[in-house]
Design goal:
The chain has 22 helices and 24 strands. By secondary structure, it is an alpha/beta fold. Among the domains are: 185 residues, de novo design (two linked rop proteins) (Up-down Bundle), CATH 1.20.1440.80; 122 residues, Ribonuclease Inhibitor (Leucine-rich repeat, LRR (right-handed beta-alpha superhelix), Alpha-Beta Horseshoe), CATH 3.80.10; 153 residues, Leucine-rich repeat, LRR (right-handed beta-alpha superhelix) (Alpha-Beta Horseshoe), CATH 3.80.10.10. The strands form 4 sheets. The protein has a 17-stranded mixed beta sheet, with no helix packed on it. Strands 1-3-2 form a 3-stranded antiparallel beta sheet, with helices on one face.
């Protein structure tokens, strides 16, 4: 016997697969059960009861005269005798009457079998078996796509995900929020959406609409009052479901094997239905109650012709008509299924009704097998696809991420990350998060917000709570912003820094920040940047004072010239791309600071000499070899800082003496061999950097620089220092390391303000004890070999250590 446990798998799978069984599949399943019962019932009758009963026929008299006597004898022998009359001795005995055949039981059985095999029509014999086989084929066709390896794996995976999505607390929460809207709110939302499509031509629309927020309803901003409604475990489970749905969608939408198999099995059932109706209608009349049997077994039984009775003919006839009715209904249902399959495309599925009902406007339409399964589910219960759609929405996913993010980053945890940045502002750096926590906007003391490598940053209207916010840094972040938040930033934001990989990552709303004072752009720009429409919008930044572009520009953008009237500092840091056509610099009359770094400049641009307000010039990492044009700097009366470091300059022209307003001069990392004495006629110099050159001699005229506070000749070839150097009594930093010095003058003690001294890498044997007179010098500020430091007297060493 088969144990009941063997059928457990069928009872377990059926409830799972039933969601993919529309009403016609369920109906045909019941029809199949009814037809199966007809087949089983007929087969049981075939086994349990006699199939046919036969008797020999009476022989008719022959017309042949020669056989009259034989026939007479045969008739006489077969003529029934009159029944015996009851005798007085045996009154109860009654003699049986009938046609005697002289056949025994074995002969009758033999005759029945022979006639059953040879005389009975095959349809009457095998009808119940045909019913059973056809019904099993129908059942196999109806469920084959659930068992085929190529389709069953997709179905099982889909049903598993569907059940989890249906029961997920996140689904219930997302739908309950949107279902709580009244009709007026829905109408308002639709009106707002339609208006947002028409305001693109206006300035406000052009700022925000490029990063469209139509798919981000305000209701999907996480409400802090309900943030705890979903615990951390449920949030992580919902997050995992989103990832599963994404991967499953990519996998299933690649093909349409489920649709193809369902169509094929339906077509096969229709063809089989037509075949069954055809041959059954023609052969059902062959099921007869009386059958004539003519078999040549006379030598064994003495008879050749028999009359047989098919005992189940009447019942089989009724069952066949009943079976044909069931098959007809089954076939008509299959024809309706084909109509449903081809009436519209089932390889595309639209969530339009879900979008209208829930207000989640970004639910995407699906195709191929994914669409087909959703169509099948709709026939079972449309609520399944409605709840499943929540996990196809990017907005819903972002909201879930936002909720998990808020639970992870509490205000107390964020306050622990606060630090002071280079602009002396209280800054909160957030790196590589899944989004921007709403809890950030609870830190009202925040002055600077730095976001790095964060995708899908959404700045809500709650940013208005940060009254002290003045600086925003976006490094490789994609940012969307609501209109109220943009209005706040327009009024309050002073500094914006954007680092990007592609120009399309530049937030278009930044060009409307009318109170922005500093803009820092870091990323790859087009070489023909002047034709870029995006940057032309810089003209709207009326308050911009500082502009820094670290990129690969080949010429100064026209957009920069448009803000030249109020621009005070401009920095262009190229990646080695040659910067040409610098005549636009002449228009920047109010420019006080200019940095042209790594721009492959071979000469000092002549346009620079027209910047009469210029105070600082930095030409670092260019290809300058000759700086004869330096004489033109005499017209720049306000120029105090000149940095020509990291170039290929071989000499300093005598015209340098005319730059009497210079206070900071940097010639480091060049190829200078001789220092002209005229250099020291710039007696206002406080900072002089000559490190990393080929200088061998320091002129004694250096003593003229009474304001000198910083002097560096590190990594040169100087063999001795003039005593006049120690007349610069305001000197605080002296770097003479990595030279060829052998003696350090005792006059070093005259530098009372000296706080940093680098003598490492020379040929000193001892240090002068007068070094102890430098009261501001500490051990941390003295860069020297340990062995050389030990040559100082112990009291001097102790004083330096204690300082």
């Amino acid at each position: 016997m088969i144990p009941v446990t063997e059928f457990r798998q069928f009872s377990e799978q059926q409830p799972a697969f039933r969601v993919l069984k529309p009403w016609w599949d369920v109906f045909t399943d019941y029809l199949s059960v009814a037809m199966l019962m007809i087949g089983v019932f007929g087969c049981t009758l075939q086994v349990m009861q006699d199939k046919i009963i036969c008797l020999p026929k009476r022989v008719q008299p022959s017309q042949n005269h020669s056989s009259v006597s034989n026939v007479s004898q045969a008739v006489a022998s077969t003529t029934p005798l009159p029944p015996p009359k009851p005798s007085p001795t045996n009154p109860a005995t009654v003699e049986m009457k009938g046609l005697k055949t002289d056949l025994d039981l074995q002969q009758y059985s033999f005759i029945n079998q022979m006639c059953y095999e040879r005389a009975l029509h095959w349809y009457a014999k095998y009808f119940p078996y045909l019913v059973l086989i056809h019904t099993l084929v129908f059942m196999l066709c109806s469920n084959f796509w659930f068992k085929f390896p190529g389709s069953s794996s997709k179905i099982e995976h889909f049903i598993s995900i569907l059940g989890k999505c249906f029961d997920s607390p996140w689904t219930t929460r997302a739908l309950s929020e949107v279902s709580g809207e009244d009709s007026e709110e829905k109408d308002n939302r639709k009106n707002n959406m339609s208006r947002s499509n028409t305001i693109q031509s206006g300035p406000e629309g052009s700022l925000v609409n490029s990063q469209s927020l139509k798919s981000i309803p305000e209701k999907f901003v996480v409400d802090k009052s309900t943030a705890g409604a979903l615990d951390k475990k449920e949030g992580e489970q919902a997050k995992a479901l989103f990832e599963k749905v994404k991967k499953f969608r990519l996998h299933v939408e690649e093909g349409d094997i489920l649709y193809a198999m369902y169509v094929r099995q339906t077509v096969l059932k229709v063809i089989k239905f037509l075949i069954i109706i055809g041959y059954n209608s023609a052969l059902v009349s062959k099921v007869q109650f009386t059958v004539d049997c003519n078999v040549d077994i006379q030598d064994m039984t003495g008879y050749k012709n028999f009359s047989c009775n098919h005992t189940m003919a009447h019942l089989f006839s009724k069952l066949s008509f009943c079976y044909l009715c069931f098959v007809s209904i089954y076939g008509l249902t299959c024809l309706y299924t084909l109509y449903w399959l081809f009436y519209r495309s089932l390889r595309e599925y639209s969530f339009e009704y879900v979008r209208q009902e829930t207000g989640i406007d970004d639910i995407p339409d699906v195709k191929n097998d994914f669409a087909f399964m959703l169509h099948m589910i709709d026939q079972y219960d449309p609520l399944y696809s409605k709840r499943f759609a929540v996990f196809l929405s990017e907005v819903s996913e972002n909201k879930l991420k936002q909720l998990n993010l808020n639970n992870e980053w509490t205000p107390d945890k964020l306050r622990q990350k606060l630090q002071t940045n280079a602009h002396n502002r209280l800054e909160l750096p957030l790196i590589m998060l899944s989004g921007l926590p709403d809890t950030v906007f609870e830190i009202t003391e925040l002055q600077s917000l730095k976001l790095e490598i964060i995708k899908n940053v959404m700045i809500p209207a709650t940013i208005a709570q940060l009254d002290n916010l003045q600086e925003l840094s976006l490094h490789q972040c994609s940012v969307k912003i609501h209109s109220p938040a943009l209005s706040f930033l327009k009024e309050n934001l002073k500094v914006l820094s954007v680092k990007f990989d592609d120009m399309r990552e530049l937030p278009p709303w930044m060009y409307g920040l009318r109170n922005l004072e500093e803009l820092y752009l870091v990323g790859s720009l087009s070489h023909d940047i002047s034709k870029n429409v995006t940057l032309e919008s810089l003209r709207d930044l009326k308050s911009l004072k500082i502009l820094s572009i670290k990129s690969n520009v080949s010429k100064i953008p026209q957009a920069v010239v448009d803000v030249s009237s109020h621009l005070q500092k401009m920095c262009i840091h190229n990646d080695g791309t040659k910067l040409v056509m610098l005549n636009n610099l002449k228009k920047m009359t109010n420019l006080t600071e200019l940095e042209l770094v790594h721009c492959d400049l071979e000469r000092i641009p002549h346009a620079v000499f027209s910047l009469l307000s210029l105070q600082e010039l930095d030409l670092k990492e260019n290809n300058l070899k000759s700086i004869e044009e330096i004489v033109s700097f005499q017209h720049l009366r306000k120029l105090t800082v000149l940095k020509l470091w990291h170039n290929s300059i071989t000499y300093i022209p005598e015209h340098i003496k005319k730059l009497t307003s210079l206070e900071r001069l940097a010639f480091s990392h060049n190829k200078i061999e001789v220092l002209p004495s005229h250099l020291f006629l710039c007696n206002k110099i406080r900072y002089l950097d000559l490190s990393y050159n080929d200088i061998r001699f320091i002129p004694p005229e250096i003593g003229v620089l009474q304001s000198l506070q910083y002097f560096s000749i590190t990594c040169n070839k100087v063999e001795s220092l003039p005593d006049e150097l120690y007349f610069c009594k305001k000197l605080k930093t002296l770097k003479i390391g990595k030279n060829s010095l052998s003696v350090l003058s005792p006059k070093i003690g005259n530098l009372l303000f000296l706080s940093y001294l680098d003598v490492k890498g020379n040929h000193f044997e001892i240090l002068p004890p007068e070094l102890g007179d430098c009261r501001a010098l500490k051990r941390a500020g003295l860069v020297v070999e340990d062995a050389l430091f030990e040559t100082l007297p112990s009291d001097v060493r102790e004083r330096i250590w204690r300082a």
